[in-house]
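User: Second chain of the day. Same drill as before.
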Amino acid sequence: MNKVSIRDFYEECAILFDYDGNEIGLIQSSVQLTHVRLQIKAMSAEGYYLIWNNQQIHISSNGEIYNWPEGLFDIEREMQSLIDNMIDE
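Assistant: Same format as last time:
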């Protein structure tokens, strides 16, 4: 019988900035980013953005990231896609 293993995954962090360009802090996971996006949407806040991999990534007032760069907190989504494809086979 095969056994499963637990593996650590590390993703590159992103830095969150407010509408005045002030650094708010480090985003270290997709859960943290989702929580920030929920807050932005709840407040209809404008001007927030991330710096990740030397890219400026805007978060809209409805919490969306319209130009989601490949590699930005996407490990979980990629794994879920693999699971979905395995189920469909």
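Residues 14-88 form one domain.

User: Great, on to the next one.
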